[in-house]
Amino acid sequence: MARENSLWGQRRIQAELARLGFEVCPRTVARYMRRPYSGSPSPGWRQFLTQHSADIWACDLFTVQTVWFQTLYVFFVIHHGTRELVRARVTAQPNSQWLAQ
């Protein structure tokens, strides 16, 4: 049933079997619904980054201690495809408006 009706889940197959007079647990149905292994592994993280680097942006917020023991907050945005630093902001008093800009 699972091969012939690929959109059916375990509950639907269980209901169809119950309609035919077979009482089975949904977990039993799920155990026999395993999809066949295609033999090719899914792409790795490095390949994913290579394919999508033009669309990936990253940001970070961290603190830096100055020589005078003042804490500065640094926010930056980087584009992975070009490795370009898009935005960098530094402040001693962070608030939501500073972060939103």
Structure explained in plain terms:
This protein is α+β, with helices and mostly antiparallel strands and about 100 residues long. It folds into two domains: about 1-35, no CATH class; about 50-100, no CATH class. It is about 30% helix and about 25% strand. It has four helices and three strands; from the N terminus they run αααβββα. It has a three-stranded antiparallel beta sheet, with no helix packed on it. Strand 1 and strand 2 form a beta hairpin. It is elongated. The mean pLDDT is about 85.
Briefly characterize the structure.
With 101 residues, the chain is of the alpha+beta class. Helix content is 30%, strand content 26%.
> What coarse outline follows from CA principal-axis ratios?
elongated
Relative helix content: 25-40%
pLDDT averaged over residues: 86
Please, how many domains? 2
Number of H/I helices: 4
Tell me the Rg in angstroms.
Answer: 27 Å
Low-confidence segments, ≥5 residues, pLDDT <50?
none
Give me the count of strands: 3
Q: Trace the largest sheet across and list its strands.
A: 1-2-3
How far apart the termini lie comes to 55 Å
- How does the major sheet shape up? 3 strands, antiparallel
Fraction in beta strands = 25-35%
Order of helices and strands: HHHEEEH
Sheet/helix structural class:
alpha+beta
